[in-house]
Amino acid sequence: MYDNEIEKTDVLIVGCGCSGLYTALNLPRDKKIVIITKSDVESNDSYLAQGGICMLKDESDYDSYFEDTMKAGHYENDKTSVEIMIRSSRDVIRDLISVGVAFAKTEDGALDFTREGAHSDKRILFHEDITGKEITSHLLAAVKKLQNVTFHEYTPLEDLITDDENCYGAVVMSKDGVVRKIEADVTFLATGGLGGLYRHSTNFRHLTGDSLGIALEHNIELKNINYIQIHPTTFYSEEQEVRSFLISESVRGEGALLYDKNMQRFTNELLPRDLLTEKICEQMEKDGTTHVWEDLRPIPADVLKNHFPNIVQYCKDAGYDVFKEVIPVVPAQHYFMGGIKVDYVSKTSMNQLYAVGETACNGVHGKNRLASNSLLESLVFAKRAASDYADNLKKDEIQKNQNLVDGLDLSPYEDYRSLQDARHRLVEAAIDKANGGKPSPAEYRTW
User: Fold this and answer.
1) Is residue 124 within 8 Å of residue 114, measured between CB atoms?
2) Taking Cα atoms as reference points, which of 58, 114, 138, 137 lies closest to residue 372?
3) How far apart are CA 77 and CA 180, in angstroms?
4) Do 76 and 117 meet the contact criterion of CB atoms below 8 Å apart?
5) Are 260 and 287 in contact (CB under 8 A)?
6) What's the pLDDT at 440?
7) Is the whole-model pTM more than 0.90?
8) Alpha carbon of 379 to those of 19, 88, 90, 96, 219: distances in Å?
9) Beta-strand runs (E) in 190-307
10) Catalytic residue among 273, 369, 423, 445
11) 29 catalytic, yes or no?
C-alpha cells in the first residue's frame, strides 16, 4: 500500500543515534526538520557504547593521542580528519556537559579519565559503563524540546529520491506499512552500521547497512567498505538472534585477563582490537572451541561494582558470577570504519546529501578504530555537517525536480523485505570484492 501525498521539509535526517541528534541540535532553528528511524528512538548503537569518549586533556597529550589513533588505524588514517577530531574534542565535550551529560569526576570535582587498549594515556571520559546511553539520552531530550523537529519512529528508509546528481528526499515506509515520499532540501544519512549482517555482532539486529546498498544503487561513492572492526570480547551466546553483549575494552584496561581452554593466558590483553581478535581466533582454532574465557577477578571488587555495574549484572543474569568465575567471550562484528565517502564537512559525492556517524567514512579511523574514538568522531563531523549546511547552502542554491518527485512510482517499494534482502546481498558482495575475494572477517547471517 502506498500514498502519493508528499511530506515536505527543509531537512530530513535518517537515523536518531548521537550523530543524527547532534546534527539536528546544531541546525538553524528556523528550518523544519524531520527525523526518521527504522525502530524506536532509543534502539540505536549509540546507546550501546560502554567505554567512553576521548578528549584531548591538554596540549601535551596531542602528539601521543594523534599517534595512538594513527597506529591503531595502521597509518591509513586521513591525517586531516584525525587532527580535526582531536582539536574539536573539547568543544564537543562542553556541548555535552551543557545538555546535562554527567561524566565521572574525581573526588575534587575534576573530570575523571580512564584508559583503554592501545591508548598510551588516560584520556577517556565515561559514565559508569553506559557512556553511550548517557550521551545519547541527553541529546535526545534536548532535541525533543525543539519546536522545529518532528520524529517518525518505525519508519525505515526505502530509497533516496535522486536524479543521480542531486538528492531530493526519500521514499520511506510509515509505521502503518504505507509507502510514501518525504521531499527535503537536504538529507543527512545517519543510519548507523551494518552489524545486522553478521552472526556475531554487538549492533542492533535491524542495523544492516541500508544506506550502503542504496549508495551502491545510486553510484554514490563509498570508501573502505571492507574495513570492518571485530570487537575481541563479547559475551558468547549460542542463540543466533541474540545481539552480542560487549564486554568493554575498559575491563581489560583495568586488569581483566584472557585464558584458553586450559585456563592459561595466551596473549597481551591490551593489544589493538584487530590484533587481539587475531590472537583470540587463532587460539579458538587451536583449541577447537567457539570461545575463550575472560577473567574479571583481577579487577578490585569495588572497581567492578562501580565502573562496570551493567556488565556485572548481565553476566549474573546469564548465570555467571564475575567475582568468582570466568566468563565465555568471542570476537564479534562491532564497528564499521568504512562507509559512504565524505569530505571534512561530511558531504557525499551527491549534491544535497550528507552522511554522518558510522555510515560515513572520512578516513579518521583508518583500517582500525582506536577505542572510544567512535562517539567523538560521530559528534565532531555531525556538527561540521550542520554548520556547513547553515553557513554555505543558500535557499536559491537548492536544486529542485518537482516532476521527478511527483512522478516517482512507489509500487516497487511495497515489498520491503525483498528489497532489503537484495540490498543485503549487494553489500555483502561489495565487501567480499573489496577483500579481493577473501572470506569476510566475520560470518554473514543467512537471509
Assistant:
1) yes
2) 114
3) 39
4) no
5) yes
6) 63
7) no
8) 5, 9, 11, 10, 26
9) 222-223, 228-235, 245-246, 257-259, 292-295
10) 273
11) no
